[in-house]
Amino acid sequence: MKELKTGDFNFILPEELIAQDPLEDRTSSRLLLLDKETGCVSHRSFRQLPEFLRRGDCLVLNDTKVIPARLLGEREDTHSAVEVLLLKRRESDLWETLVKPGKRCRWGARLTFGEGRLKAEVEEVLESGNRLVRFSYSGIWEEVLDSLGEMPLPPYITHKLQDKNRYQTVYARQEGSAAAPTAGLHFTKEMLEELSDMGVDLVYVTLHVGLGTFRPVKTENILEHHMHSEYYEITVEAAEKINRAKRENRRVICVGTTGCRTVESAARDGVVYPGCDYTEIFIYPGYRFQVTDGLITNFHLPESTLIMLVSALAGREQVLAAYEEAVRERYRFYSFGDDLLII
């Protein structure tokens, strides 16, 4: 297999196709169906998804919940504006963060948010440039954060989100993500009930999505790219459901690249093991999938690790051809965009 270059995963996307707002009805997005064996594509609506799933399919969903991780505040001494993005909880009130502008927030800098309802101090500047920040407040952390924080929307979305819940899946339960597992945004509770009633096995796993998911690949050779670390968790019940489906030759279809990365991270010799850990798994063409048979996913950034993962499952040329078709047909792209079903 030839050495893969980052440019091998490029495509031209008109800026106006980047969806800036979620659709009013979650299931009204379009669905591009890609046959991974033949490369054939067809155009559908997400409402038709149940037509392409069958009794016994195992649908893996990431139940992570996005926290309002974007805090806007100021330095206590200079009153200059700062923005803090919560990346990873290290201890109870100690977080690894991304601070802008960083030059204003060196070690010892004291910050305040919400007219003093929340305060913070920079305890350490990491090699990556991220800051370890310790917060102090009165009351319950989750309530303080919910009242002061904003949803950390991806950099390509410039519109203000009117309803926080629209950047949250309807099955979100485990708080910890700095970004939504966006393939799941298309589902409603009614559709999940419909799928369950028709015999689709719904399985929930957790992977807390980091902002690194939007980080571009800056190396020419993709093998030189270092993946960001993300926390995942799989229960004993979830692992057993997935393993039973594999033993019985039923399809395992992952909702989103995060669901896929979770089960593949936890698999050894084709068996998914329960537990929790951090993963830096990088899936690109040539990877041999142990668990994933199909994928429901949004349309991703050019030259991103996510389009590389999709290409590993369905073939680079077939995926790029499907993306070109989506551009021609004016599909909506990225987090609030339309969907791709690979089976």
Notes on the structure:
This protein is α+β, with helices and mostly antiparallel strands. It folds into two domains: 6-66 and 163-342, 3-Layer(aba) Sandwich (QueA-like), CATH 3.40.1780; 70-148, Beta Barrel (Thrombin, subunit H), CATH 2.40.10.240. 19% of the residues lie in helices and 28% in strands. The protein is built from seven helices and 19 strands. It has a nine-stranded mixed beta sheet. Strands 5-6-7-10-9-8 form a six-stranded antiparallel beta barrel. It has a two-stranded parallel sheet with strand order 4-11. A hairpin with a 5-residue loop joins strand 5 and strand 6. Helix 6 packs across helix 7. The longest helix has 13 residues, at 316-328. The chain is globular and about 65 Å long. It starts with 29 loop residues before the first strand and ends with a strand. The model has no long low-confidence stretch (mean pLDDT 94).
The number of helices is: 7
Number of domains: 2
| CATH topology category name of the largest domain | QueA-like
Which architecture of the largest domain per CATH? 3-Layer(aba) Sandwich
Radius of gyration from the CA trace? 20 Å
Q: What assembly state would you assign to the polypeptide chains in this entry?
A: single chain
Mean pLDDT reading:
94
In the sheet with the most strands, the strands line up as 2-1-19-18-14-3-12-13-17
Distance between the termini: 24 Å
The CATH top-level class label of the largest domain: Alpha Beta
User: What's the helical proportion of residues?
Assistant: 10-25%
Order of helices and strands: EEHEEEEEEEEHEHEEHEHEEEEHHE
**Structural class estimated from helices and strands:** alpha+beta
Molecular shape: globular
Q: Total strand count, please?
A: 19
Spans of at least 5 consecutive residues with low confidence: none
How much of the sequence is in beta strands?
A: 25-35%
